[in-house]
Design a protein that fits this description.
Alpha/beta knot; globular; 7 strands; alpha/beta; 156 residues; 7-stranded parallel beta sheet
Length: 156
């Protein structure tokens, strides 16, 4: 299981998601350009000392990420408020890449079109969206539950 962040713009959210990846032993991808310098102290503070524990790959662009993904043979699962299918009604595989868009703009139409599946976390209709880090935690939790992927060296 892997998480990819498309041009993230809030360092605290990115740091929180990278900490999640470290704790759950899930690889992470940042698709540039990010809306902040990844040496930013807020980013580092949110990730704390966990950043050294993340299997992190940076991609200079969407096209470079797509090159990597094609070679790796991974499905791309986009989480978006514009989807109709619930994340709970989807069958995940261990090699899936869960993609989350920019906090302020989501993803481009080209990115959405490249996704193998588009999923939504249903929320109360009068509200706009969940925080991206909360969404990532819910999504990866369900995906790991379904695939039975163990966290190596996990404490119980």
């Amino acid at each position: 299981m892997q998480i990819a962040l498309f041009q993230p713009d809030i360092p605290q959210n990115t740091g929180t998601i990278l900490r999640l990846c470290a704790c759950l032993d899930v690889a992470a991808h940042i698709i540039e350009p990010a809306g902040f310098d990844t040496s930013d102290r807020n980013f580092r503070r949110a990730g704390m000392d966990y950043l050294d524990q993340v299997r992190l790959k940076r991609h200079d662009s969407w096209s470079k990420f797509e090159e990597w993904r094609t070679e790796a043979g991974c499905r791309l699962i986009l989480f978006t408020t514009k989807a109709a299918k619930s994340y709970l009604d989807f069958e995940y595989t261990a090699s899936d890449v869960l993609l989350f868009g920019r906090e302020t703009a989501g993803v481009t139409d080209a990115v959405a079109a490249a996704a193998d599946a588009r999923l939504v976390i249903p929320i109360k209709p009068s509200l706009r969206s969940l925080n991206v880090a909360v969404t990532a935690a819910m999504a990866v939790g369900e995906a790991l539950r379904q695939t039975g992927a163990p966290v190596t060296g996990a404490r119980s």
